[in-house]
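Components:
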Amino acid sequence: QVQLQESGPGLVKPSQTLSLTCTVSGGSISSGDYYWSWIRQPPGKGLEWIGYIYYSGSTYYNPSLKSRVTISVDTSKNQFSLKLSSVTAADTAVYYCARALGYDFWSGPPDRWFDPWGQGTLVTVSS
Amino acid sequence: QSVLTQPPSASGTPGQRVTISCSGSSSNIGSNYVYWYQQLPGTAPKLLIYRNNQRPSGVPDRFSGSKSGTSASLAISGLRSEDEADYYCAAWDDSLFYVFGTGTKVTVL
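Structure:
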């Protein structure tokens, strides 16, 4: 049974870079069937998809965050990571990592959903 | 950035049927599958429905999903106290990003 666990600093200063890592256990991140995703949720608000990565390194990002986001993968450690630059208070949120499973079509958007999710980690942006 | 609109709240008494709507557009719900997630208080979201109306193993058949045009619905029949949670619809957009709904808080009276 695959499990995901987020880790990283809980406090980041404005204008700095937020960095988080997700460790996957119970399965290989190199499995060709899955993408590996980051999703966030500001306190008391809804969910926002940040982006995801394939084990080969192919990435897809939310256009609203694309200029500030980098998602990378380390297959040797069975981990993938998130970097979000130039953070502001608006980036304060619980950050979740999740496995994306489903199917990619030849063209257009995929048929993928997120399961399971990590427990989430709260990152606060404050000086 | 939510482009899928849900009612902020819904409620019912134990045993009742509750329906949550999710309204989108031709570029998301209108042309792609809909997914539903349940978020119990203080926990991470959990997949409830995929491909409009498919339940993962372990999800009770009290939960059902449907889609028509640019809207979708989640129905909870035989409402139970443990169903009290936030529910989010989601879909891919033709511009290749995933969008979540605004979320609906279900209260069991």
